Amino acid sequence: MQLAVELEELGTQIIEASRFLEHAEEELSLRIIGQRDVIRRVFIAMLVNGHILLEGVPGLAKTLIVSTFAAAMNLKFQRIQFTPDMLPADLVGTMIYNPKDLEFYPRKGPVFANVILADEINRSPAKVQSALLEAMQERQVTIGSQTFSLQEPFMVLATQNPIEHEGTYLLPEAQVDRFMMKVIVDYPSYDEELEIMLRSATNARKVPVRAVVQSDDIFRARTLIDRIYVDPRVQRYIVDLVVATRKPAQYGMAELETMIEYGASPRASIFLLLAAKAHAFLQHRPYITPEDVKAIVYDTLRHRIRPGYEAEADNIKPADIIRQILQHVQVP
After folding, report:
1. In a structure prediction context, what are the per-residue pLDDT tens digits for the chain, which is 332 residues long?
2. What angle do CA 37, 72, 132 make, to 5 degrees?
3. DSSP element (H, E) containing 21
């Protein structure tokens, strides 16, 4: 009875605290046609302090989504174009010598912002990727001998092109795993593309976006998300889904043993739980259900499962493996 009362009170607070997301979504719709699922995933990552890897062919408004999101959220935005000749100093900054004082001073780089768009991240060499990795994981940057904390909220949204591999560097598995979600940006529908074309022809997509959110709104939402109730059966369901990617035979999927080279790390369980909580928050619920987990499981696991040789020979993708796991793991 006490739990029911607490959840009812929390539900009321969530309804009130989540209104800022509705206002932000309205602002984004002024410039973004469609891509509702992608926008929702960006909201989820922001609410639980995560990062996103966006994958899609050029021209699908990935950059526009991120820049418009930052504007509506009233957050400092930096777009960083990653190139093969890029240096870590181009990202984090460097020490500048001042001959007047005979001392070195740090000049901070573009990573010192709230929302970072790492455009075509796989075009940069390993040293640059490792510099971004420190910022993503530790929320800090080292310049020379000094370490600087990054201002919260801080999130990285990196993009990569899936159809062009010349002049690119594969992201290290350790870095890919630190992205909370890998979101596939797909083509718009016929009607959406028609509206995109007409808006672009009339310059309607350049309509100014108002800042309708304050940082306090985000921090308050994060506090409420921490309090969202998770039933022990749902907790075990999340762990079962992740463990099934590593030991599928235990869940009646012996045929997947040779299809998976390696499965998801424990970080996947953490992110799956956090993302499910944020998804429940978007639905104005003070508790999560298995449906919340299913809604974000593909985005959370697809980049953490490496198909084996047999799977690649049969053109089996991570999404196919996840689909089969969802069919076999018992839902509470």
Report:
1. 677 888 888 888 998 888 888 888 888 888 888 888 999 999 999 999 999 999 888 888 888 889 899 989 989 999 998 888 888 888 888 878 778 777 787 888 888 999 999 888 888 777 887 788 878 888 888 887 788 888 889 999 998 877 666 556 677 676 788 899 999 988 988 998 898 888 877 765 567 788 888 888 999 999 999 999 999 999 999 999 999 999 888 888 888 888 888 888 899 999 999 999 999 999 999 999 999 999 999 999 999 988 888 877 788 888 899 999 999 888 88
2. 75
3. helix 19-29
Provide the whole-model pTM. 0.88
**What amino acid is encoded at 202 in this protein?**
T
Whether the Cβ atoms of residue 224 and residue 13 lie closer than 8 Å to each other:
yes
Alpha carbon 36 to its chain centroid, in Å, reads 14
36-47 and 290-301 are packed helices; what angle lies between their axes, rounded to 10 degrees?
100
Residues in the chain: 332
Q: Which two tokens stand for residue 31?
A: 């410039």
Backbone angles phi, psi at 330, to 5 degrees: -70, 130
Number of helical (H) and strand (E) elements in the chain, helices listed first: 14, 11
Peptide bond into 232 cis (omega under 30): no
The answer to whether the beta carbons of residues 181 and 300 sit under 8 Å apart is: yes
DSSP 235-251: HHHHHHHHHHTT-GGGG
At 300, the amino acid letter reads: T
Domains of the chain: 2-203+211-216 (3.40.50.300), 229-328 (1.10.8.80)
Residue 260 bridge partners (DSSP): 307
**Residue environment code for 97-121, b if the CB has 16+ CB neighbours within 10 A, otherwise e:** eeeeeeeeebeebebbbbbbbbbbb
Tell me, rounded to whole angstroms, the distance of Cα 147 from its chain centroid.
Answer: 25
C-alpha 282/C-alpha 18 separation (Å) is 7
